[in-house]
């Protein structure tokens, strides 16, 4: 007798569980064409902005690297005697205490010497 009651209660609980777990019908969503158009326009504008910024960053990096690897004339001037000696070197090879010339010579600058850098002119090419 008790088993019949337990089976009936089990069937009732199982039915209630199945009905509660059943997917509820979703409401139909009506798309607003203007809102969709605005969303696509905003997304396309953001993508275009990112592409323009990526090209600008690439151009700036290219120009900076090109400027650093330029060949310049370096004048080493002794501040006491005024004597001047000139060398040709890559701009990225020049440091505060010395530089390396185009032919591979390492030049170290003393404390009494001054470095002047002269950019290479286009006529020299």
Protein topology:
Layout (H helix, E strand, L loop, with lengths): L1 H20 L11 H36 L2 E8 L5 E12 L2 E4 L4 E3 L4 E7 L6
Antiparallel strand pairs: 1-2, 1-5, 2-3, 3-4
Search tags:
elongated, 2 helices, 125 residues, single chain, alpha+beta
How would you sum up this structure, described in words?
The protein has 125 residues and is an alpha+beta fold. It has a domain at 67-124. The chain has 2 helices and 5 strands. It has a 5-stranded antiparallel β-sheet with strand order 4-3-2-1-5, with no helix packed on it. The radius of gyration is 39 Å and the shape is elongated.
Q: Quick one: biggest sheet?
A: 5 strands, antiparallel
Strand content: 25-35%
* Individual helix count: 2
Shape: elongated
Strand order of the largest sheet: 4-3-2-1-5
Instruction: Compute the separation of the termini in Å.
Output: 109 Å
- Derived from helix and strand composition plus strand pairing, the structural class reads alpha+beta
C-alpha Rg (nearest Å):
39 Å
Low-confidence stretches: none
Fraction in helix:
40-55%
Please give the number of β-strands: 5
Summarize model confidence as the mean pLDDT.
Answer: 83
SSE pattern, N- to C-terminal: HHEEEEE
Compact summary:
The protein is an alpha+beta fold and 125 residues long. 45% of the residues lie in helices and 27% in strands.
